[in-house]
């Protein structure tokens, strides 16, 4: 079975992106140690990329993930550290969109 890719577009409340990223990044080593995690990192717009770029903007970051299987992704979503992250970040997040993808 091919791996699972996740693109999570997270928009912070105005002025909260850095605090949210700090909280997110504290969780990254724990997530990367999970069974089935291949990649997990937050990304932001590249400055000065020019007209070829459709920017997400100053309040948004995108989490790029790769998992060995849907089972690994499901375990990740249910993990206690992710539930705690959700609880701690709840008041900082304005919107989130999670895209779960497979290779074409």
UniProtKB/TrEMBL annotation:
Q: Could you tell me which SUPFAM superfamilies the record lists for this protein?
A: Dimeric alpha+beta barrel
Among Pfam families, the record links this protein to: ABM (PF03992)
The protein's UniProt keywords, in alphabetical order, are: Monooxygenase, Oxidoreductase, Plasmid
Cellular component per GO, a single term: cytosol
Could you say which residues form the signal peptide? none
Q: What class of enzyme is it?
A: oxidoreductase
ABM domain: residues covered: 4-101
Which EC number(s) does UniProt give?
Answer: 1.-.-.-
Which GO molecular function, any one, fits this protein according to its record?
monooxygenase activity
The protein depicted here goes by the name Quinol monooxygenase YgiN
């Amino acid at each position: 079975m091919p791996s699972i890719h996740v693109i999570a577009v997270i928009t912070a409340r105005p002025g909260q992106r850095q605090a949210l990223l700090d909280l997110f990044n504290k969780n990254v080593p724990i997530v990367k140690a999970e069974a089935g995690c291949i990649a997990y990192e937050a990304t932001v717009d590249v400055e000065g990329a020019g007209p070829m770029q459709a920017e997400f903007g100053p309040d948004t970051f995108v989490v790029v993930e790769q998992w060995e299987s849907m089972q690994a992704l499901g375990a990740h979503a249910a993990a206690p550290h992710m539930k705690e992250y959700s609880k701690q970040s709840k008041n900082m997040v304005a919107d989130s969109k999670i895209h779960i993808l497979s290779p074409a």
